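Please produce the structure of this protein holding pyridoxal-5'-phosphate.
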Amino acid sequence: MPCRIETLEKPARPTAFAPLPQPLAWIEADMLALRARGLERSQRIRSGRQGDAVTLDGRPLINFGSNDYLGYAGDVRLTKAAAKGACAEGFGAGASPLVSGHSESHELLEQSIARLLETEAALLFSSGFAANIATIAALAGPDDIIFSDARNHASIIDGCRLSQATVRIYPHRDMAALATLLAGDRDPVARRKLIVSDTLFSMDGTLAPLASLCEIAHQYQAILMVDEAHATGVFGPRGSGLVEKSNCNDGVHLRVGTLSKALGAAGGFVAGHQAVIHWLRHKARASIFSTAHPPSIAAAATRAIGLLAEEPQRRKTLLDNAAEFRDRLLSAGIDLGEAEAQIVPIMAGTAEAAVRLADRLASNGFFVPAIRPPSVPEGRSLVRASLSWHHTVETLQRLASTIEALRHEP
Ligand SMILES: *Cc1c(COP(=O)(O)O)cnc(C)c1O
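Below is the modeled complex.
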């Protein structure tokens, strides 16, 4: 039975605003500076659902700008699971998890995550961002050292800052540099050492060398925490992530992930040893002082984890198609950096060049967003094609031909 498509009230944006009061007037100047550097953003409004096509500001485009890797964000089965959860437990959770917000749906979801990851326990957060900042700030403090990959996600960077630990940043995936930093940090002796890395890097589409990370963490007796946000649902025989694919379950101490990307729902989690997760329930401030996410979301996310087991061909199709797409662009001499997954960056250099390429792709019917500072360093702007199970081989071939043709235009 299909879900009845509802028509929602159409939003209209106001256009006239009062001048800013004096204490906030500097914001106008700051915004002008962003505009001058080509960094002003306009937030597009999407109509309808995520899918292979998406309507942005009223314009239908082939969608290469979502993290909906398995096509579940708009899946009616999840809409229904959410409706069922809301009918059973209400729309709002009403309290933080430790008080009365943790419903049976939340409990089921935590157990489903732990089973999927083959860990003892998992702790939910309202977002992956919250999971990272809360977990890092709980694990490390001013007496500790965190070793962080230079391209780690903003939520890891903010977690490191919040922890007030000393932060040592190693060049992207450079294991020799990481080992050197760890070897050099014996004097004075840090109370704890924490290594943290994305597993699939969101801007570059690169993979962390997990086996080496485990080896180094073991050698230097450091805690190893990885963020699987873009890998959850995509990698591994069961779809639990790159840790599973790389056979590194034993060497990775904590795994953060999100329910908001391949799983099509919302929310984040950290999973690991029962004793660690139980302790985190007492220490992770973004969990303790924040309302549990709506039970409907938890119910939908549990269903999405079920779909991972029922539909393994989705992740296989996605990764096979992505490999073919990258091969085709690479053999046409297009710079993809070192991408090796379903996130395919087309390197453009300046922010202007990235925006120009994205605009031209949009004129050809493709939504492939430009990524510029602060999401990437200055001079490393790119256009990022996020592939989804939705995309057919023909669609991918058309995008590749369009990129190849546009490359020759000034
Ligand atoms: C998206 C992302 C997050 C945040 O997850 P949300 O659930 O969207 O808040 C965390 N880490 C990485 C690497 C991400 O790409």
